[in-house]
Amino acid sequence: MPSRLILVEDDPDLREFLSSQLFRRGYEVFGAASGEEALGHLATDSATLVLTDVALSGMNGIDVCRRVWEMGRDVPVIVVTGHGSLDVAVEALRAGAADFITKPVDVDVLCIAIERALQARALRDEVQRLRESATTASIGSMVGQSEVMQRTCAILSRVAATDVSVLLTGESGTGKEVSARALHQQSRRAERPFVAVNCAALPEHLLESELFGHERGAFTDARSDRVGLFARANGGTLFLDEIGELPLGLQPKLLRALQERTVRPVGGDREEEVDVRLVTATNRDLDAAVASHDFREDLFYRINVVGVHLPPLRTRGNDVLILAHHFIDKFARATSRPVVGMTERAAACLLAHSWPGNVRELANSMERAVALTAFSEITPEDLPDRVHKPNSPSAFPGAEARELLPMAEVERRHILFVYRSVGGNKSQAAQVLGLDRKTLHRRLEQYQVESASGGERRLGNVDPTAET
Hints:
The protein contains 19 helices and 20 strands. The protein has helices spanning 12-24, 35-42, 61-70, 86-94, 107-133, 147-160, 176-185, 204-212, 229-232, 251-260, 286-291, 297-303, 319-335, 344-352, 358-372, 385-388, 407-421, 426-433, 437-446; strands spanning 4-8, 28-32, 49-53, 77-81, 99-102, 137-139, 142-144, 166-169, 194-198, 213-214, 226-227, 237-241, 262-263, 272-273, 277-282, 306-309, 341-342, 377-378, 449-452, 455-458. β3, α3 (61-70) and β4 (77-81) form a beta-alpha-beta unit.
């Protein structure tokens, strides 16, 4: 089926000439004398591309680009500019144009630009089709297709319908508060308050007052009664972030509140009944904190009825790209920027980065890129330097910057690096690497690496840390 083009040109002779030339090359062409006419036709037609002159009477070609984007139509726009009008061409690209060509128009060059734009759109459609057809797990704004995220979202979805206490663990930036809000939104308490507090943000005496409230005169500056967060969250969910930083002296008071389902305001002598669902989060190892007596064991078991570990972004494979597109759409719409995706080189940069700041770092990077890009697709240059210009040309810690390696050795080092980064979990490593588990197993045997007693054992006399 031939591609359907809308040609916007207010010169009737040039419009007729280009229409006939494009028709001879197999395109269906609708000629429009103005931008308004073209947009009106586009609203009711399944056109696949718009070709417009910049210099039009009335609405100009830049405005046509913006209006096509605002209509929500994923239709590429190619603009024709006067020779040497580079500033105009850049403005058109910023407005969402897929490409531009200069006058006088070379029809062969024009057809190349049209095919390139149509192929780029077809690629985006295919990516979207694959994203929709693949099994995507989600709860709230937590999304992912990786095996580890599907398991995590399944656990969160099951526990959301209950009232049990949930302990969320994971590195900073993995989405613990997002998960806590999702648990609340999918619970029977969704219409009641969700109240959050960071236990590391306040000193002990102020945190106690925040949690339980206080009565007038309880301490200096207590000039009036204050309702605590437990009372404010009554009937809803209380989220205690950084629970591992809770002062040891305050831990028995929290334990009693959870056991008795009552709180006593600071300076008060009356108990208040509360009904809250408790969700906590930490990036600390609470098992180690219990062993070192920095965290009460009885409180640990009270808050950890169900423990959910949120995986770091570096172990989630192509979820990086799914999340990146999600953030691009979000920030482009919030700022009215005509950004619709990223180039293949930019995607490769995202996949190569280790994301120490996890999802929070990715969101920050995409927000920056959407704000700075001069084009409709994010390029590597739009990304932060730490993402597209790593400190070392090598992706492997410890490798010499000037070391030149055969491709097989680069592949070996990368596979071992990923395998160790996920703690020797072959399923996770295979997911990140894009390999099936059997292929990964064969590679590890080839590299003389095998699992033993749940850990990793390196055969031969080669140090497994030498390459990483």
